Amino acid sequence: MSWQSRLPPELLWQAAAQSPLLVALFDEQDVLQYANPSFCHAFGVAEGEQISWASLMRRNHARREGSLIETEDIDTWLRQVSTRRGKLPVRSFEADLCDGRWIWMTETLLHNGWMLCQACDVTQLRHDERALRQALQRAVRDKQTDTLTQISSRSHILRLLQRDLKRLAVSGRPLCLAVLDLDHFKQINDQYGHPFGDRVLVNFAARVQRQLRRSDRFGRLGGEEFLLILPDLQPHDVTTVLTRLCEDIAQPVSLGEQPAFRYTVSIGLTLAHPDETADRVYARADRALYLAKQGGRNRVVALG
Ligand SMILES: Nc1nc2c(ncn2[C@@H]2O[C@H](COP(=O)(O)OP(=O)(O)OP(=O)(O)O)[C@@H](O)[C@H]2O)c(=O)[nH]1
């Protein structure tokens, strides 16, 4: 026995009446011949009302209900939509409703020329999509940020360096790279404890950050080692800036229980050459840093 012969027709009506899906039938003149309660509610249609699709849209537009139609000129809008409506056997699209919901509408042309319209509420899906997008943005931001100091993470600052080196190859403008390393940091940890060492790192990052230009890039490579990229300045000028920074960092600060705590930083500086790899530039800056440490710390050494 087929379903058709088994199924009482009124059950189909009841099912459509209770369905959260929006269901409607338009005849070959595009006049509404049936709409279930969900459709009626969403589009402001009265039970049993026969209204053409164009009139319904015009009314919805005037009353700001049903489909959200963002136009001043409803006639032009109707003309444009009429070029698509009923032109394909099946057509699906997303539409906004004035009440804030989003629906996914499918229009199916039936054999007799009528059109079956069915729509489901996809508002939640769109919200989930947005939540997913936001989670992705958060994950990217977290990956780019050093958890402790809130400056660029190692991977991010190294990626910025690669990008700046590529630009240098094209622009030829000067690009300086500095490696900054806190002095005797192990002693600080040993004497005051690891959490205090963390506070020193945070304090250092904040103090350096305050002195930078917007175009400078600053990141933590790991431990007490930091990387600074300074575009568009010659090494001579950068040496002056960083020497001042060293002097500033050496000033006592109030940190935790210590009202006048002093720490210093050593800096290795170099100028990147066009077509150089990040590894090569970094190695030279690191050698300069080594010389700064050897030379007594709390200083800047530049290597060309
Ligand atoms: N508090 C804290 N300490 C860290 C962190 N990462 C690394 N360290 C410590 O930093 C210290 C670095 O010590 P060293 O590499 O010997 O360098 P240093 O004592 O600063 O000596 P110089 O660089 O030669 O002046 C080690 O004791 C690490 O355990 C961190 O995130 N927080």
Automatic annotation (TrEMBL):
SMART domains: GGDEF. InterPro entries: Diguanylate_Cyclase (IPR050469), GGDEF_dom (IPR000160), Nucleotide_cyclase (IPR029787), PAS-like_dom_sf (IPR035965), Rev_trsase/Diguanyl_cyclase (IPR043128). GO terms for cellular component: plasma membrane. Coiled coil: none annotated. It comes from the Bacteria. Its EC number is 2.7.7.65. GO terms for biological process: cell adhesion involved in single-species biofilm formation; negative regulation of bacterial-type flagellum-dependent cell motility. It catalyses: 2 GTP = 3',3'-c-di-GMP + 2 diphosphate. Gene3D superfamilies: 3.30.70.270, PAS domain. Residues 173-304 form the GGDEF domain. GO terms for molecular function: diguanylate cyclase activity. PANTHER family: DIGUANYLATE CYCLASE DGCM-RELATED, REGULATORY COMPONENTS OF SENSORY TRANSDUCTION SYSTEM. This is diguanylate cyclase.
